[in-house]
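Protein chain data
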Amino acid sequence: MSTGIDVSSHQGNPDWGTVRGAGIEFAYIKASEGVGWTSPTLDSQFQGARGAGLAPGLYHFARPDTGNAPTAEADSFARHLHRLGAHGPGFLPPCLDIELTGGDLRAWCAAFVARLRDRLGRHRVMVYASTNFLLGHLGEPWADANNIWWWVAHYGRAPGQPGHVTPRVVMHQYTSSGRVNGIAGSVDMNRAMRPLSELTEGEDDMFTEDDRRRLVEIYEWWQHGIEGVRHAGAQALALYRVEQRLIEVHRLVEELKPTVATVVREALGDADPERVEQLVNRLTEKLDETAQRARPDTAGNGEASREQAAS
């Protein structure tokens, strides 16, 4: 897996060409802290890393200890992401660096993540924390509820083997005293735990428990013959939170078919596989037809959301 670094003003302005030549493939760059503070090296570090061919990403150092509103901090961070065009495909997910406590931390971080998605659209979000902080203050149920990825700091362990490993842990910061040609002094070192191409996809398409419940509801409406298949189609579109762009509806329904099949099998069992296949095909056909009819309204809503997010 790929090796990367994270930098702040402490690293000044690295020789990014030399850094890339040393085998470093990605870099997280500190953008902001609290409300209104911007790293003085943000622009030069971001442009330098990007120009040298590294996959860049920005992180925000949270200050819940000051009493700042999480929405205000998220807005401050989002302005830099928009200004630099530093989010979406080709970039590491925007990251919340949480190391300090204050008030109801789970609620604070959840509000930050939600606000950031409001500003950026359908988007993956990374949360950085040490193993002890993660387990002591946030936890996996919180991560599941907010659909985030973890970047875990855990020193003294082999790269890519942090003390806390779940499917949501996608990056490991394994030392703060790394040495890399092109950087004066020490630097934080990180190992990606998924392919870099996957980490830089941009869109948030992770399948959640809420998505699963929606599929079950859709199936139940159809199975019992309740009038309102159009409503089921609207739910299917909401399932993937189509707020920021038009989508190819038929492709989406085709991608849903394996999950629909799983739900149907769980409902009916495997005793009659032919019946299961028939139900899956009929259900996805209905969803496709209904979604096609609903598409114009969805497109309008998506455009409005896009304009609001950019304001």
About this structure: The radius of gyration is 22 Å. Confidence is low (pLDDT under 50) at residues 226-230, 240-247, 295-311.
